[in-house]
Fold:
Amino acid sequence: MSSTESMAGTEGVTISRTGQQGAFGGELLTVNFGPHHPSTHGVLRLIVDLDGEQIKRLKPVIGYLHTGIEKQMEALRWQQGVVVTDRHDYLSPPINNLAYALAVERLMGVEAPPRAQALRVIMSELTRLSSHLVWLGTSGLELGAMSMLMYCFRERETILDMNEEISGFRMHTSYIRPGGVMADATPRFLDMLASFVKEMPGHVDEYEDLLTMNPIWRARTIGIGRLSPEDAKVLGASGPMIRGSGIAWDLRKTMPYSGYESYDFEVATSDACDCYGRYLVRIKEMREAVKILDQALQRLPDGPVNVDDRKMLPPPREELETSMEAVIHHFKLFTEGYSVPAGDVYVAVESGRGENGCYIVSDGTHKPRRVKFRSASFVNLQALERMALNHMIADMIAIIGTADTVLGDVDR
Amino acid sequence: MPDEKDQESVIDDVTALAKGLKTTLGEFFSPVVTTMYPEEKSPRAERYRGRHYLRRYDNGLERCIGCELCAAACPVGCILVIAAENTEEKQVSPGERYAKTYEINMLRCIFCGYCEDACPVQAIVLGPEYEMSDVSREKFIFTKEKLLEPLPPDVEARLKSKEQK
Structure:
């Protein structure tokens, strides 16, 4: 593929001629798309072979946002690792926290108390909502529906305000930690959540009014980016990508965690197998998330939000004044940390993008030996070529959008 | 001449577009949610993790006892504490030791709040301030002098009332 001549393209796109013959008499063009292109959701670079405007080959080039997060974890103590997990899939930090916390807890053989589990479910569903809202807003924007971005980000802002209220931070919450959660929910948070649960279904209706029957949206998504159920399985797709191909695979149902088995919700699927099907799946998931939030709020159990284990979590602050033992535990936990029994464990949770797994190996010390994240974005990205083949290059934008990749999660 | 089916779908399309336009028109008349930053600022939550402050007791003594737990708890290693002994002539903190040097590299800090959790005497707290941009890198090394600036009065009052409980 020798590039004989380069032509100036638009920003982020360079074009070279390959000299190969295309089906329409012209020659195949190799187009470099990104990494700095507004529609690539970060820094995704694609090398696309074009016959006229048709995509004949598509190769994602990743690694532009590699941050070495997995390696960094090896240098941090178990409880410090939480702050790093926030930062790989930066659109759903609490769900990343949850995968890590569950993995550490399983190795240690502890289980978070019921109230913590309910709060974890609440945070997970809020995150799923905010992640889908970003997806809907940006995908709408890319396909010409400008107002979607504004409406979706308005609701996302409410969720970020709730994050701030409960954890003190809007995005990198570090809220879910091994052994429980950072702190109990404030009464104001519960009020905000109650009014959010009441308002959100109306907003989802609004999005549907704007898009579901809209002829432009339908023309841009129906039949575009087909992924057959067989392909979805073979390529390891998960989340809305596999459910959009008609397979009801949702880790919240198939391998429940944090008490998801006790909530009443449906797994959204669509047999359409195209971008529109995945859109419908995500819209339905938003409605189901609100349903779960409502249930969690109705029956939020009372009680502690952290395990009562002085060897794992620091003692309450009041005890520091009165108990020497508490002071010793406090100092020991913040300097040396706790050690986790040797072994390895893989725990997967359902994030807005799919199976978000965390594999940890412990050698029995106070730091992990190895941490590996199985990110849904990375695996779903592999389906990109299968979906984009023989489509027009303009449809590629819709297809990148529908994969809903977060590049920080792809490269880690 | 378009056939019947085409006509039907055209009607559907126009209805869908009208429905969408109705939604946007409705939004036009609904209250504005935009905050006109920086003229107008939204309030920060109580737990907000912003700029660090070092606190003092009411009698003016520094709370920090130079135990370096904050530096040990910090996941990014942005805190430097060098402790010194209190003497009878120079009593800086109520304990035996005090922090001679206390520096936070704000360029490294990720505002996780672990230092606040670790501090046994609640000397270091993360305040509500988030506007910290500056023009030179040196200014982001917050020294003890800068960190000892008093907290906003309402935050200080809230922390005190929590301690008394």
Summary: Chain B touches chain A through 33 residues (CB under 8 Å). The beta strands of chain B are 52-54, 79-85, 97-105, 124-126, 141-142. The radius of gyration of chain B is 27 Å.
